[in-house]
Every structure is written in structure tokens, then in C-alpha cells.
Amino acid sequence: MAAGAVVDSLLSGACVVFTLGMFSTGLSDLRHMRVTRSVDNVQFLPFLTTDVNNLSWLSYGVLKGDWTLISVNAVGAVLQTLYILAYLHYCPRKQALLLQTATLLVVLLLGYGYFWLMVPDPVTRLQQLGLFCSVFTISMYLSPLADLAKVIQTQSTQRFSYPLTIATLLTSASWSLYGLRLRDPYIMVPNLPGIFTSLIRLWLFWKYPQEQDKHYGLLQT
Asked: CB atoms < 10 A from the CB of 203, how many?
């Protein structure tokens, strides 16, 4: 096997393993909901936006014929849908959540209708769909930055998950290298902010250790 093919296989495998590892961090939330039969301290919107992101990248993978993208995002969409259904099952107030879900589903269906019916040229469709996926992924990676001011103000990183931070860093790095290898900027560029935000989180974990948070909480009580 040629060296280039070996590199491609390794990068593809890394993308699959690290991304599925990142998606599986939601299993702890699922376990929490099942044990407590509540959704306390579990956020709904990340499940929903990640599901839409998976479905968008799944479409891009199908159009591009990339089985790495297809397999990862198909499994990711199934997992996120499972988390969403569990959240809806245990949440007592479903109206606002159902409205959010319906709104994003309508947006997704309108997007599918536009890309598959209004853009007949496959090359143009691939470029526009890749741009849409890139913008959506970048916005997802940058959204946690809104919590930085709160973390610095409280000197507490309890709002962040250390395992998810590591998983995001490895996932973003592997996809950036995979996109670079394929010369596909729509895969490479949107994952660079994931590396950036993960490094910021790691610096905050170093500056404000969670053990310190526990002692601070005891002093406060």
C-alpha cells in the first residue's frame, strides 16, 4: 500500500474514532436523565444543533461520496436524535422544546429543498452546501466563547466538561488534517476554531482547576 493511502486511512480512522468519542460524551447525560428521571443540569440546544449539523454534513458526504463523512455523521445523527427523544421524554415542559425542534427541522427541510431542487449543477451544489456546513460548524464551535466571561468572573470551570474539551480538540485536529489532505477547505477551515476554543478551555482548566472550585464552594457555604 502506498504511503499516501496509509496516511489517508490513518486520518480517516482518527476522524471516525475521535468524533464518535466526542458524540458519546452525551451518554453521560443520557444516563443522568434515566437515573434521575429529570433533565436537571442537562442542556437541550446542543443536542438539537449537533443533530442538524450531523444531518447537514451527512448530505455533504453523500454528495461528495466520502464514506468517512457519511459513516461518522450517520451515527452521530442517530445518537443526537436518541438524546433529543430522551430529553423530551423526561422534560415536563415540552412546548418550547418542540417549537425549537420544529423550527430547525423546517430550516433544514428548506435547505434540502434549495440545495437539491434549486441548484441543479452538482459542483455548485457541493460548494454551496459545503459553505453552509462550514458556517454552521464554526458558529457551533464559537458559541461556548460566550461562557468565557462568566468563567473568568467566577474563576470556576464547572460550566465546562474536561473530557468533552479533550474530545473536541482531538476531533477538530483530525478533521483539519483530513480536510488539508483532501484539499477541501469546507472540511479543514471550520474545524480550526474547534482547536482554538479547545486550547482556550484547557488554559482555563489550568488557571482555574476544578479542585479549586470545590474548595471555593465549601468556603462559600
From this structure: 10
